[in-house]
Design brief:
The two termini are about 20 Å apart. The longest helix is centred in the last third of the chain and has 27 residues. A four-stranded parallel sheet has the order 2-1-3-4, with helices on both faces. It is α/β, with parallel strands linked by helices and about 220 residues long.
Amino acid sequence: MQRTTIRATDATATAVASSAPPPPATAGTDGGHAATGDGHAATGVGHAATGGGTADDGPAARILTVCLGNVCRSPAAEALLGEAAARSDVPIEVESAGTSVATPGRRANRRMRRAASRIGVTVNSRTRQVRPDDLQHFDLVVAMDRRNLADLVAMRAEHGGRAEIRLLRSFDPSATTLEVPDPFRAPPSFHDSVLACMTGSIDGVVAWAADRDSSPAARAA
């Protein structure tokens, strides 16, 4: 299981996640089919990003990245966060999941894995369905698009949870759109573009985690 931490400051996205679910935005398939909705235990292999923290530094921030099928965007975001947190010496726990996972335990999309390898990042997670208890376990849940965000907010409204729910691109102050496009079935070059799109937000998430880790409340958790 890979682990990493980050902190966001985008008030608009936070407000969206705290209110009633917004209407679903158009999104690609991301390899997903009908959601299982059964809350079964995950079969995925997460990333245990260590950063440089010790037991005396307080608990690592727990972050979950979420897309539709958990085969393209969220596994890549998970891997990018793990790498960035390790480089920044920020302790985090990071995993990924999908809102509509067709086959639990499946490897990430091959084109996305290859695109990530071209920038020196290894994507090795396995698909799993997001579960209601994730919204209690994780400190931050990062959605790739508004459809994912709406599904997560609806789940929290029904089951409760303490996690902050945000759009990934809300962590990038230069972003011109808040959604990460779905590259499923797209050509390899589009996967490269999606990774570049996400990269601008990763440092913001790591900063979120570092800020949380340094707060008195986090150290007391």
